[in-house]
Structures are given as structure tokens and as C-alpha cells.
Amino acid sequence: MFSVTDHIPARGGSDKQFAPGRSQLALQDHPRVVAHHFSGREVRPASREVVVDGTKRKLQPRAFDLLVYLIEHRHRVLSIDELLDAVWRDRDVQVCSLATAIARIRAVLGAGASGDEVIIQTHHRVGYRFVAVLECDARVAW
Asked: Do residues 8 and 116 touch, judged by C-beta distance below 8 A?
């Protein structure tokens, strides 16, 4: 745990003092993702918006968090337990809550309507994986 007087080495060898309210990641000068673009869709984590073909669509908060988590960890299959822990944290929820959130995401994104497009792949009894190809992540520097 950092205190106000702790120092974190920054790039280039100098030190920056850790300020209350700022995360360690923010001090590392990493760019943050403003939007994920794929197949005519856009997910904007900072503003918590989903845009499909230019139209903003509503997605419940937990389902939105789940979508962002899937996108950020798209390089592997995420287990059911990991997703429940990451999105629902310490709440006692059933697997059906996860399945319902996945169904809501798919409905909002319009995935699978034609039967040939897969955005979130199901690995039965294992978990899920975001498989749509990201066109470009719009980034902004801190």
C-alpha cells in the first residue's frame, strides 16, 4: 500500500511522488483506451457507451463491465469462475447471471442475428472468449 510520502520511479529514472487519488498505473504514463472498434461497433469504456452502426445502445452496468473485461482479455478463454469474480466480485451469483449478461451483450451488439457472425465464443462448461477482430483501439495519452 502506498502512502502520500512514497515515491514511484517514473520512466527516465526520476521519481514522482504518489498523490492521493491517482493510481500507480496513471503514474506510468500508459495511454488509456478510449474506444474499441470492431465490425461496425464501438465500445467506449470511459463513457460506458456502446455504439452499433452509429447508434448508441443501452447495456446494463454489469453486462458492460463484462464486455470490457472480455475485450481486454481477448487473447484467451476466460473461465466462468474468473468472469464471475472479476465482474460480480464478492457477490454470490449463479452461473445463469453470467449467461444472461452474455445474452444481453449479444442482443445489444446484434451478434449472431444472421447466424454467421460470432463476437463472443462460448466454450461449454469452461467459459467465454471475445473473438471479434478489433480494427483499431483509439487511445489517448494520460
From this structure: no
Radius of gyration of the chain (CA): 18
pLDDT digits (tens, 9 = 90+) for 23-82: 333 333 435 678 999 989 999 999 999 999 999 999 999 999 999 999 999 999 999 999
Cβ atoms of 122 and 71 within 8 Å: the answer is no
Of 127, 106, 120, 89, nearest in space to 50 by CA: 106
In sequence order, the 6+-apart residues with CB closer than 8 A to the CB of 2 are: 8, 18, 24
Q: Give the residue among 131, 123, 125, 107 at the shortest CA–CA distance from 52.
A: 107
Do 129 and 78 form a contact (C-beta atoms < 8 A)?
yes
Max Cα distance, the chain (Å) = 57
For residue 58, with 0-12 CB atoms within 10 Å meaning exposed, 13-18 middle and 19 or more buried, which class applies?
exposed
What pTM did the predictor assign?
A: 0.73
